[in-house]
Amino acid sequence: MVDEERVIRLAGEITRDVARLRGLSHAGELTQLPDQLDAVKYRFITAIEGCTSIAHHILASEGWAAPETNAAAMRGLAEHAVISNELGVGHGEGRRIPKPARPSIR
Fold first, then answer.
1. How far apart are CA 88 and CA 10, in angstroms?
2. Per the domain annotation, does 23 fall within a domain?
3. Rounded CA separation 97/26 (Å)
4. Would you place residue 93 in the very low, low, confident or very high pLDDT band (cuts 50, 70, 90)?
5. Given this model, what pLDDT does residue 32 score?
6. Judging by beta carbons within 10 Å of its beta carbon (0-12, 13-18, 19+), is residue 54 exposed, middle or buried?
7. Is 8 domain-assigned?
8. Is 56 inside any structural domain?
9. Number of domains in the chain
10. Is 98 domain-assigned?
11. Which InterPro entries would you find in this protein's record (predicted)?
């Protein structure tokens, strides 16, 4: 059985991370602000981890196939119509956020 309190807690943490990311999006040129860039990366990671934690929990609680990867967990939710196919497949393609170019030091 899905632990609704756990899912709600994790969803709240994801919401908090997204709100902080929105705040950091106004920081301008992040490549010039290494600490801000680090904060953005951290918030992305924790938001993604929250999503995949929810996915693994739901799949296990419902007795559905245990995924071997986080991408497979998202695809599993899509297969059971918990999330859209677009979201499940898009997550499963392993997209990466490109690293920004570092300014040259002269």
1. 18
2. yes
3. 18
4. low
5. 74
6. buried
7. yes
8. yes
9. 1
10. no
11. HepT-like (IPR008201), HepT-like_sf (IPR037038)
